[in-house]
């Protein structure tokens, strides 16, 4: 890895991590539970664990993304290009580390379970953020497939509108050499997210907390998980669509260029907004989550 790539790695990882840490610290001070009570101490320890897991997952995800971005491109026209898949792979790594973090969640210490039992499902803890992520995944899949089928035969350029007596192409264009790694990384990100959400929904409740307090902690975990994955998946497809819009415009396809850029802009703004709001996710009026129906995941 070159010195430039190492410098980029430090900037991309260190700066966002410092900013996120500051936001989480300020949020924690503003909404910190009263440590003077046993319930407040349990909630404080749980929030500290949640923040630690989030920062570890964010760091690993950023490193994976930067390493793939810095990976050398093969000379073969049909060889996979991993750079476009970097944000999606980062999201997959983020969700995987979050899942590992859920396995280290504090266990009840009492000899007899004191916390109330309630069955929860992935959809109940995911809420609207899960719906947004799934919609973004559909948009990403449609975009990648559309780019793959409209690319030239080499998969990395696009043909300009036909002009009698001339032929020309523009690129780099995200055909299948770019699209296949993106789809694979997207699938891994969704699988890892589903697994982590399932662990959030099924983890043991902490002793001394009411159902509403325990559900508030689960909502925080789910919101930060989905917010981070949304940033990787949504930010990745937004960048891809915006870049493709520039290539299409240069190739002489103004309407497809405008459509691609518009989709990228909308998805990008929505994803960044979802991520930022997830950092300060708190239930000011916590209510119990709806129980999962029989057979639900």
UniProtKB/TrEMBL annotation:
Keywords attached to this entry: Membrane, Transmembrane, Transmembrane helix
Superkingdom of source: Bacteria
Transmembrane stretches, start-end: 6-26, 53-73, 85-105, 126-149, 178-201, 222-243, 255-276
The protein's name in its UniProt record: Uncharacterized protein
